[in-house]
Amino acid sequence: MSTRTFRVTVRGVFDGLSADQRAGLLARAAEHDVLRAAFTPEGSLTYDVALRPAFTFRFLDSGEAEEDILEATERAEESARAWLEQRGYGYKNLRSSAEDLSQAPLGKRRRREAARKSS
What we know:
Elements: E1 4-14, H1 19-27, E2 44-47, E3 54-63, H2 68-86, E4 91-100, H3 108-118
Antiparallel strand pairs: 1-3, 1-4, 2-3
């Protein structure tokens, strides 16, 4: 059985931030800019509280069966909650989406490579 790679995105909104918390997030905003976004096992956080209070965590996980994506999603949500709660950040509207990369459609270049290999 082959290993499947999952990309899990957890989105939400900061809620009830104090002035100090907001200032702290603003001070570290460059570290969490969308241009630095990546799917990582530990999770990558992006936000821009200067524009709006929304945030996105991106997680990379794996499993052997298609059903493992559910557990990967639960782990990602728990990791996001833990990160927020450890720092005392309020949040709301937490929601997740997950993608099994083995099921993702191939891009043009990968379709050509696959066609060459099968010929």
